[in-house]
Amino acid sequence: MELIKDGKRLDGRGFNELRDIKIEVGVLNRAIGSAYVEWGRNKVMAAVYGPREMHPKFLRDPTKAVLRCIYNMAPFSVEDRKRPGPDRRSVEISKISSEALSHVVMLERYPNSAIDVYVEILQADAGTRCVGLTAASVALADAGIPMKDMVASCASGKVNGEIVLDLMKEEDNYGDCDLPLAVIPRRKEVVLLQMDGKLTQDEFKKAYEVAIDGSMQVYEIQKNALLKSVNEVKIGE
Amino acid sequence: MLHIKDRDLVIPGQLIGENVRHDMNCFREGDNVYSSIHGMVRADENMVKVIPSTGEYIPKEGDLIIGVVAEVMMSWWLVDINSPYMCSMRGEEMTREPLNNDLNKYFKTGDTISAKVSRVDEVNSCQLSRPWKLEDGLTINVNPKRIPRVVGRKKSMLNIIKEKTGSKIVVGQNGWIWIKGNKTELAIEKIKKVEREAQTQGLTDRITEMLEKRNR
Questions:
Q1: Distance CA B173, CA A67 (A)
Q2: What is the per-residue pLDDT across B119-168, written as a single tens digit (0 to 9) for each?
Q3: What is the ipTM of this complex?
Q4: Count of CB contacts below 8 A, A vs B?
Q5: What is the CATH number of domain A9-226?
Q6: Do the beta carbons of residue A152 and residue A185 sit within 8 Å?
Q7: Fold of the CATH domain B64-133
Q8: Is B78 on the interface with A (CB under 8 A)?
């Protein structure tokens, strides 16, 4: 399938361009922190509950809190109805997301407790694990949980022999390779890196650089969204 | 050297300055000092700290809190204090021989009490002392990190609300506030307003003005 025409992608983006990203902070009243992210045609909601009492009790850790991230796709998030409930894929994404977030959250502050992060995919259009992580880290910051840094995430990949940033649905399905990446922006440490497909060493290096650049752009958007959220308080009766 | 002005907003991991003395919610890596939470920077002479706007209550020794008795045990009470950690309160706080007395006589499940956190250990389990039963009235919930604003400097805000609405108010550091009086609705409205506008300046004056207008 022809995915690149005259140096442009199907939706008219250049090779190193992100889709439009919109982040809203504090959208849920009952959650301690929450975020809603629209990233191209992806729509993702993340909510943070906690630190709170850990149940089941035998999983408690007296040296630190346990961060549990639960990634879930709504049945209506994809074209064919997705069977509800956890499956192999969402359990995997939950695990890698919790591990990525555990690297930045200062868990040792809250021994014996649990921090629950729920990531709900309302509409999926490729790269949902990156969107989920981006939303989750904004929600954690909104919850006032101490962190060493944010987590910014973005994917790159190979489409029709070209290294491109932030794959969309068609590129993900018919492209050659997908490389989701999450970094701690300050020191550019990688907390999540997966690869689906094949790349040569040189291509990998390039795709890696491109994805890091994309993540840094995502970080700026996260930062602006968080700083704006506090200024939105209205004064009046 | 500071990279950020007083009252600026920061996000976790943002650089605040180099070689500055830091207080709560900051951490140091080499010479650099970073914020660990999303909040507002307060910087004076040589000290920086970051004020959070949300978060759960973590028990601290000496805090006055409001709790609800969750369970009555053989010789102690289990108290819910709106925190990730439950609190225990020894029967000796009320009687010399807790095992020979029925503890239900003093506090039953569901009773609201005010108490002091007397001891917190390294895993944040805590003990309460000097309990006081709060009868009637009602308890409202505000964000624990905005309690300092509700109380105000030297209790200025709290005294104004108490005085103008003529109600009894006990503020627990854990985010629960107990109110009793004739104008509880007005008091709740004002407390909620303070909570909502916690990070704005000149709040005490605005609240005073509003309450005086209402009383006239």
A1: 26
A2: 999 999 999 999 999 998 999 999 999 999 999 889 989 999 998 888 99
A3: 0.89
A4: 97
A5: 3.30.230.70
A6: yes
A7: OB fold (Dihydrolipoamide Acetyltransferase, E2P) (2.40.50)
A8: no
